[in-house]
Design goal:
Blueprint: H1 4-32, H2 39-57, H3 60-75, H4 81-97, H5 101-124, H6 127-146, H7 155-161, H8 167-190, H9 206-219, E1 227-231, E2 237-241, E3 244-249, H10 256-275, H11 291-305, H12 309-322, H13 324-327, H14 331-338, H15 356-371, H16 380-392, H17 418-437, H18 441-446, H19 451-460, H20 470-478, H21 485-498
Parallel strand pairs: 1-3
Antiparallel strand pairs: 2-3
Helix pairs in contact: 1-2, 1-3, 1-4, 2-5, 3-4, 5-6, 8-21, 9-10, 9-12, 10-11, 11-17, 12-14, 15-16, 15-17, 17-21
The structure holds zinc ion.
Length: 504
Amino acid sequence: MPPPELVDLRRLLAEISDLDRARAVLEWDERTMMPPGGTAARAQQIGTLERLKHDRLRSPEIGRLVDVLASYGEDIPFDSDEASVIRVARRDHQKAARIPTKLKEEMALAAVAGEHAWREARERSDFAHFLPHLERNLELKRYYVECFDAADPYDPLLDDFEPGMHTADMAILLNELKEALLPLVAAVREHAEAVDDSVLIGVFPIERQRRVVADLLRSLPIPPDECRIDEAAHPFVTSFSPHDVRLTTRYDERDLAGSILSTLHECGHGFYENGIDSTLEQTPVCRATSYGMHESQSRMWENQVGRSVPFWRNFHKRLEAAFPAQFKGAGAERLHRAFNVVRPSLIRVDADELTYDLHIYLRFELEREMVGGRLPASELPEAWNTRMHEYLGVEVTDDAEGVLQDVHWSEGAFGYFPTYSLGNVIAGQLWDAVNAALPDLSEEIERGNYLPLREWLREHVHRYGRSLTASEIVERTTGGPIAAGPYLRYLREKYGELYGLPAS
Ligand code: ZN
């Protein structure tokens, strides 16, 4: 018999979870269906649900229950649903209790206003229009940081996206990526002629792209009665239960690679949401464990699968059939190479696999400096442009394609960016682990059978939800801590071969 306090705790947590899922429905609708006229009312509705949720989570009643249950939770198996619920709820409560509801509300309001101003500013490439909102978001984040006894002011911000990870460790990891990628990208640029992607340049009618994507989705192991897919300007995935997952994708008639790769990317997120154990529903554990782990899943399906030789040996025929004028007789090898071209560019979301982490490094560096007070927001465009030149060798002539390209800072989401690179790193480690466990994985992918990969990920990553942290999952699947080695080895081997680089 569970203690009566656990029954009470689960009842309160179920209500908080319902508020949170209702907010997710409103957000999904806002980004896929809602006419623009709904914006102001929707912001208020979401704000109300957020406030109710925050007030309940930090309530003394939950505080009492998690304290009473703490020792019981330590005596039962660590992985059990009960122990996990107590552990995660206690952590969430203690964190929420530090943050006044008033501050939470002000941050939410500033995020809505900031995003609105950012859209206008980006349209006109007018950083000055956005600057006061950026400054306001930073000011509120400083109050937020003061709620914690943090060694580094960036720590509490990073913790919102990557629970338990410290800035110092993230900095070591990202620095290792940067130091390895700069010479690798330079070497690839010297051999740029080795990879030809001219076959992807042209107009690909959207109606046909939709059919290719529908075909791709049918070949992926997604239960059709538990998922749906819609279109959104900025694709994302959300879920209202593990049995109700919402995918989105986007189409651009000049970017066929984008719609295929972004569909695979979002499916990777969707598999995660869909794979969390149903027994965890209506608890705070029924979530992905971290943003980095979530991104590891999407990047694995996008890159290790979607940009691989076995995938193209299977999929090239479908593209050739859908776009005969462009691809007739192109073959698997030509398409595989075209989908892996490396070309340093201005925009993060369009970046190739090799330069992507340099875009992230730059953002991580700049936001740490802003949060730490070492870089005034007014000097951001200049710092951005200088470092784009330094890391990627590209010239920014327009803030819309520079510092204004991403939504994150307008919403006050400082600490989010590094989790994209962490996802790449973890994907590299998990990819080694799954290939060691499933020696036939390449052959299965070449046959178009993606089920073994999804099942392995479900068993070792997805089902746990937040029962295990990202580093605990990596420890259990690879026997070691989160480390960049496997990802960098994968990149060196793959691009060394594609571009014919001399072995180093
Ligand atoms: Zn993603």
